[in-house]
Specification:
The chain has eleven helices and 17 strands. The chain is an alpha/beta fold. Helix 1 runs parallel beside helix 3 and helix 1 (14-25) packs parallel to helix 8. The radius of gyration is 21 Å and the shape is globular.
């Protein structure tokens, strides 16, 4: 059985859910396909910049009702014990993906948006339309938005080039009960990785880190790895030793890739991590996913209204907007990651920042955007 759709969104994370809400608000027919049910935890830093607030207001969302933690300061520490703290230019908030994604999903249901829980197995484009095959259905759509995350079997089927390259990273996340300042997001460097710590709702502390997988394999388990590697950073040692894990076991994902990706591939409009993943040390992937959803949704509306002349013009327009907004942020993330891998360069950089603290907010601005405005 085939279902006819104007716009099909594959993936129901932050980017996909936000795009569905935007397109629905513009009166467009949209179906979202998500393989999992809600709520569920995801590996994520769970800090989001306040740049999204004007856009959420336009979408009619009340994120404040979810009890997010207000965050105003950033603390960075090095593997050898140096530290520097600064005010975040825009500030932000801490909110778990468990709560945030579920809230957006319930808003979609309340607004009568079609959500299908199924797994996509094939995407074909011919005769100016898409045929998307899932485990249980076949969908025909004029446009498809890819919002299915960092790495997927779909990318293998699409033969995306970054899938041919092995990624050395493992990501780990859990919630903890711990004494940690509400207003602070901290980023701690350790040999082969970075760890972010911040409060989310219900007085929980989210700890999420990215580690070199080859280094991790030398140890029997996560606890041994943390004690032998992360604990070399005295700040992380203190946090972990005084925290109680609230999960049965931390969540882990491997093969986290920071290779360059295409914002448009095989006519699919990619958003969020599907289009490009920023290094966790930049701490703003959630806002980027939401902003990408806004960009693609606004352009699709213009295309369907006839203000953009063709599919080719739509794809060129989206690529231009995406590169303008995010390409330099991703490049800065890769540069910072390379710098912090070198302990001598890391120490030199922190000494410079301590002497010239005005530089750190300037670096933060390079990885964050301005408040998202909506004109339509």
């Amino acid at each position: 059985m085939q279902a006819e759709n104007e716009i099909l969104i594959i993936g129901g994370g932050l980017a996909g859910l936000t795009a569905a809400l935007h397109l629905n608000k513009m009166g467009l027919k949209v179906t979202l396909i998500e393989k999992d049910t809600y709520p569920h935890h995801k590996v994520c830093g769970e800090y989001i910049s306040n740049e999204v607030n004007p856009y959420f207001k336009w979408l009619g969302l009340d994120v404040g009702s979810l009890g997010p933690t207000s965050i105003s300061d950033l603390l960075f520490t090095s593997n050898i014990g140096q530290s520097i703290q600064t005010k975040l230019p825009l500030g932000g908030f801490g909110l778990s993906r468990y709560t945030f994604d579920h809230y957006l999903y319930t808003e979609l249901i309340r607004r009568n948006v079609n959500v299908v829980h199924d797994r996509v197995v094939q995407i074909n484009f011919s005769n100016n339309q898409f045929k998307v095959i899932t485990t249980n259905h076949t969908f025909i759509a004029a446009y498809v938005i890819g919002a299915y995350g960092k790495r997927s079997a779909i990318d293998v089927k699409l033969n995306r080039s970054f899938m041919d390259k092995q990624s050395p990273y493992l990501a780990v996340k859990a919630h903890y009960q711990a004494d940690f300042p509400d207003h602070l997001v901290s980023l701690h460097n350790f040999k082969g990785g970075y760890c972010g710590v911040s409060k989310v709702e219900d007085d929980r502390v989210n700890i999420c880190y990215l580690a070199d997988y080859e280094r991790f394999k030398k140890y029997k388990n996560l606890i041994a790895f943390q004690e032998n590697v992360l604990y070399k950073n005295k700040y992380l040692k203190d946090i972990f030793e005084n925290a109680n894990c609230l999960f049965d076991a931390p969540l882990t994902i491997s093969q986290v890739s920071f290779e360059r990706k295409e914002p448009v591939y095989n006519h699919i409009l990619m958003i969020g991590d599907t289009a490009g993943l920023i290094h966790p040390l930049c701490g703003n992937g959630m806002a980027m996913a939401i902003h990408a959803a806004k960009i693609v949704s606004a352009l699709l509306h213009q295309r369907i209204e006839g203000k953009i002349s063709s599919r080719e013009a739509l794809e060129e327009n989206y690529t231009t907007h995406w590169n303008s907004e995010f390409k330099s942020r991703l490049k800065m993330g890769r540069m910072l990651a390379s710098l912090l891998k070198n302990s001598k360069l890391e120490s030199l950089a922190i000494n410079i920042l301590i002497k010239m603290p005005f530089l750190l907010p300037a670096i933060i601005k390079k990885t964050h955007g301005k408040p998202i405005k909506v004109s339509s």
